[in-house]
Amino acid sequence: QVQLVESGGGLVQPGGSLRLSCAASGFTFSNYVMSWYRQAPGKERELVARITATGRTTNYADSMKGRFTISRDNAKNTVYLQKNSLKPEDTAVYSCNARDRSYGKDYDYWGQGTQVTVSS
User: What's the DSSP call for residue 106?
Assistant: First the structure.
């Protein structure tokens, strides 16, 4: 069955760094666009970063650009989110998304999320 399992969240001080991982199984990972989203209490879920199936193109929300980096390793079926210079406002549940909406397809999978708390 399809699974997306996030890891790497936790408590970090402002200015610190974290690397989140999302391990995928049950589908052809290399065919999917992978994304990270986040949601803080009282706020809408927002896109953090996205990477194409080949890993050749990435995009970021403006507020994350320059601090966060998305990458993928198709051999390991894993997507990463490197997060630097963390701020308290980065506190949220971060979720992994896999999507394949190419012609004739409509697949969309989500992980359970991992909590990131930025606090002194």
Answer: -
Alpha carbon 21 to chain centroid, angstroms = 8
The answer to whether 59 touches 49, Cβ cutoff 8 Å, is yes
Distance CA 117, CA 93 (A): 9
Write the pLDDT tens digit of every residue in 96-110.
999 998 888 889 999
Distance of CA 40 to the CA centre of its chain: 14
- Given a cut of 90, whether residue 119 has pLDDT beyond it is yes
Rounded Cα distance between 50 and 36, Å, is: 6
Q: Torsion angle of alpha carbons 115, 19, 48, 110, nearest 10°? A: -60
* Percentage helix, strand, coil for the chain under 3-state DSSP, each rounded to 5: 5, 50, 40
User: How many angstroms separate the CA atoms of 37 and 42, rounded?
Assistant: 15
- 46 and 37 Cβ atoms separated by less than 8 Å: yes
